[in-house]
Structure formats: structure tokens, C-alpha cells
Design brief:
Layout: H1 10-17, E1 21-25, H2 37-45, E2 48-56, E3 62-72, E4 79-87, E5 91-96, H3 99-115, H4 130-133
Helix pairs in contact: 1-3
Length: 141
């Protein structure tokens, strides 16, 4: 369990430190210029994975991956923390300089996917909560 998660609720952290920044999106909107998005994608992929939740497809390959990563911002060269969400249908990534806020955002993304799935999944996935929904997850119910 991470002690940073119990410091403050996400709303208070966002109010104190500012909101998460969208760096990639399957839609056109992001908070970084279009010409920089490929650099962000590469740095996120090469970042240090701190946490991960995965749903595998019938063939065993990942259909959805939500990662919490520490990476280097390609523009400022500073360490940032990101939630990197990729699925067969969509992708997005958001980041923040404050680890606690980004980590809470990761947990929210994992729980939101369970509450409102974006993939068509079998009923068996919903039998034991997050434990059966994800093939890999470190988020506690």
C-alpha cells in the first residue's frame, strides 16, 4: 500500500497543485502542442513503470493497459508522473509533477474502467470485483 494515497483526497490535491495535464489523446484535444506528442509518447513508453493494470484478450495479448509511470518530460527535462491508458479502442495520457495526484488519478482510471467498461467483456469478469475484472492489477477494492 502506498502511504501517499492517504494524504489528501484527489480534489484537494488538484485544488492545491493544479489539475492533471493531458499530453496524449485519441481525440484531438491535448494540453501539449501537436508536434510534441510523439516525443511524449516515446518518453512515456520508456518511463519507469510504477504500477499497472491489464485486461488480456482471448488470444492472451493485452486489450487494455493502464500504467502509472515516472518519466522525463521531453520539453522541460523534468521528472513527471503519468497515467498512461491504452486500449484497442482508445488511448490517452495525463501527467503531473506531483506523484500523489497522479497516483490517485491512476487508481481512479482503474476503478472508472471497472465501473464503466470501454471493452466488451464476459460476465465472468465481473464476479469478484477488480480481482476478476483485470488480469493484472494492484488496486485494492
Amino acid at each position: 500500500m502506498n502511504a501517499a494515497l492517504s494524504i489528501k483526497p484527489m480534489g484537494e490535491l488538484a485544488e492545491q497543485y493544479g489539475p492533471m495535464r493531458t499530453v496524449l489523446s485519441h481525440r484531438s484535444g491535448a494540453d501539449v502542442p501537436h508536434g510534441q506528442r510523439q516525443a511524449y509518447a516515446l518518453n512515456l513508453l520508456g518511463g519507469d513503470e510504477l504500477r499497472e493494470s491489464v485486461i488480456n484478450g482471448d488470444d492472451g495479448t493485452a486489450d487494455l493497459i493502464i500504467r502509472f509511470v515516472k518519466y522525463i518530460d521531453p520539453v522541460t527535462q523534468e521528472h513527471r508522473f503519468a497515467v498512461d491508458y491504452w486500449s484497442v479502442d482508445r488511448y490517452w495520457a495525463s501527467d503531473h509533477s506531483t506523484r500523489a495526484l497522479a497516483e490517485l488519478s491512476y487508481e481512479k482510471a482503474v476503478r472508472d474502467e471497472f465501473a464503466r467498461p470501454t471493452l466488451r467483456l464476459s460476465l465472468e469478469r465481473f464476479t469478484r470485483g477488480l480481482e476478476s475484472f483485470y488480469d493484472v492489477t494492484d488496486v485494492q477494492p
